[in-house]
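Hi P.,

Sorry for the delay on this. The queue was packed all week, but I finally got your sequence through. Input first:
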Amino acid sequence: MFVANESSIVERQQSLGRHYREAPGDAWITDHARALPDSHNDAIHGVVEPANNDGGFQPYGIHRAVGGDHDAPNPGDLLCSALAACLHSTLRLVAERLEITLIDSEVTATASADVRGALMVDMTVPVGFQRMHCDVRLEVPAETDQKTMKALMVGAEGCCVVFQTLKGGTKVTTDWRIDQL
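Then the structure:
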């Protein structure tokens, strides 16, 4: 059971809000992760190292629909994980700010893609996920009013960085460094 704790996150966010109003440049953050081969002889497995993970690696594999074994989370699973984690944590933060008690909560994210474009089978099929969906389940006290719940839903979706990034799209750039040995 998650119960709002007014002295923790609300105070932290209010303090950060005051600071960012005075120093907007400090509000810029950069997250990162890097992916490496698990074995140089295996093209369908690797490891990803998220930032601030103290050197821990998360294995990943490739989906069977594009030739992998799907015996480990694939990049689409990791994308869904990022969306689910971001929306879930955001809804909990917004609930705390709105003083809504969440008895229980769960977010499931799914993504669907036609992989023919990725496999160059049909170049008219776009490469990428064509649909993503979040299923949010909440348990709240019976006396929680609908206006407050609507504020929670709008606030959670509106403040979720990953949700808004995916929904609106973002510019992605690539730098290639090639060492020829």
